[in-house]
Design goal:
heterodimer; A: alpha/beta; Aspartate Aminotransferase, domain 1; Aspartate Aminotransferase, domain 2; 2 domains; seven-stranded mixed β-sheet; three-stranded antiparallel β-sheet; 12 strands; 14% strand; B: Alpha-Beta Plaits; four-stranded antiparallel β-sheet; 2 helices
Chain lengths: 377, 78
């Protein structure tokens, strides 16, 4: 089987990630629920993981790294916790439903108004639109770092500078970029960075979280047991506890810790270069096939994602042929990115997404391109 | 029963801060260990750093230098 669905989740993980999870499952108590060695073992690894994530993302304080199940949960916490009734938010057409649905819910239930920077047929945006959409009541900018559909990368530093200049809270969805693109919260003026552990960070599913700039107040989305301040009726004020009610996924976080070691040892620039080289090899192999439409902008920096269609074939049918006849795993359909599909004109057809990872090879990229050529002819 | 002695007990608002304290003390060779917060200080659950009272100056210095958010320094018989 050739696995080309790494933008959904990386299937192959570094072996030390799996070992770390297994070790943790045999030795961890509940973090923050005692001072016996087993509880402390969990607490120590969890804190160490905060330190590694803070270093990776340029977050000044490790205790401002709060864990969540995934990007979706982190984005729900950030969006519902930072934006108040009647405020205005600027986002983009590139967003995943993990950004869109929390925003749409605020729009429906809290009279929050929304504006979206439009995407063109290549999935690009005009950065001047942020300025054009600004209103007196604008409170925040929420946007993705990289599209999960086209692989186009947004200039987060530029958007951050805009947000910073106008005193807006800047919330970034790093689902597709964490682990492959450099992120520096300070330099990019990011107030809240939401990430997932199971994609390019190569950790287990069920890990992720949000890094919060000092001074940014997020009302907790969930409240409950924390292991501290038991007799207080309200959730503790201090991060990370404020955003982490309930037992953390210590076993998964131990795996994420090992994955971060792997990333640091290998180098995210090396990983990114490998993945995008495979992507470009694949794209070069399919772009001139008659009937093939390749979406996104291949002239700029991007992640290792290529979405395409063959004529007017249903994207689900193409993906099914790839699975059944070639043993190639891809993702068809709408990819939870409704606005971008509308912008690309693929709302009906969807698209077949190929996404490359660290463990893919040139032979696999060539085999995938060959399969597309055969299906198209 | 365990004999009571006078100890320095440093409390924290979060588990993250308590673990950060342990990490720094281990790295810098400073004494002490994490214990459950004694009931004399709070009815909350949670953990605290216990060391000898003679280590107070060194531990206050590390807390200040590393900007750890300690909730309080206490000396008590436990």
């Amino acid at each position: 089987m050739i696995y080309l669905d790494n933008a959904a989740t990386t299937l192959k993980k570094p072996p030390q990630v799996i070992d770390a999870v297994v070790r943790a499952m045999g030795s961890f108590g509940n973090s923050a629920r005692g001072t016996h060695e087993e509880a402390l073992a969990a607490s120590r690894v969890i804190y160490d993981t905060r330190c590694k994530l803070a270093a990776l993302f340029g977050c000044k304080r490790p205790d401002h790294v709060a864990f969540a199940c995934n990007s979706t949960e982190a984005l729900n916490i950030a969006i519902s916790g930072c934006i108040r009734p009647g405020e205005h938010v600027i986002s983009t057409d590139l967003e995943h439903n993990s950004v869109l649905r929390p925003l749409y819910r605020l729009e429906a239930e809290q009279s929050v108004s929304l504006s979206f920077v439009p995407a063109d047929r290549k999935g690009n945006i005009d950065y001047a639109d942020f300025e054009r959409l600004l209103r007196p009541e604008t409170r925040a900018v929420v946007c993705t770092h990289a599209s999960n559909l086209t692989g186009n990368v947004l200039d987060i530093a530029r958007i951050g500078a805009f947000a910073h200049a106008h005193g807006l809270t800047f919330i970034v969805d790093a689902s597709q970029s964490a682990g492959v693109l450099p992120i520096d919260m300070e330099k990019m003026h990011i107030d809240v960075l939401c990430f997932t552990g199971h994609k390019s960070l190569m950790g287990p599913q069920g890990t992720g979280g949000l890094c919060v700039r000092e001074g940014v107040d997020i009302r907790p989305w969930k409240v409950g047991g924390t292991g501290v301040q038991t007799y207080s009726k309200s959730q503790p004020e201090q991060l990370p506890t404020r955003l982490e009610a309930g037992t953390l996924n210590g076993h998964g976080i131990a795996g994420l810790n090992a994955a971060l070691d792997f990333l640091n040892e290998t180098g995210i620039d090396v990983i990114h270069a490998h993945e995008t080289a495979l992507l470009r090899r694949f794209a070069a192999g399919v772009k001139d096939i008659p009937g093939v439409t390749l979406y996104g902008d291949f002239d700029r920096e991007r992640t290792a994602v290529a979405a395409l269609n063959i004529g007017d074939m249903d994207s689900g049918e193409v993906a099914d042929i790839l699975t059944e006849d070639y043993g190639i795993a891809t993702r068809p359909g709408a990819h939870c990115a409704p606005r971008l599909h509308r912008a690309l004109g693929t709302e009906e057809q969807g698209a077949v997404r190929f996404s490359f990872g660290w463990y893919n090879t040139e032979e696999e990229a060539d085999e995938a391109a060959r399969a597309i050529r055969e299906i198209a002819t | 029963m365990r004999e009571k002695k006078l100890y320095l007990v440093i409390t924290f608002h979060t588990t993250a801060a308590a673990i950060a304290m342990e990490r720094l003390c281990r790295a810098q060779g400073l004494p002490g260990r994490l214990i459950p917060v004694p009931r004399e200080l709070t009815a909350d659950c949670g953990m605290a750093w216990r060391a000898g009272v003679e280590d107070r100056a060194a531990l206050e210095a590390v807390v200040a230098r590393e900007q750890l958010e300690a909730a309080g320094f206490h000396e008590l018989m436990i």
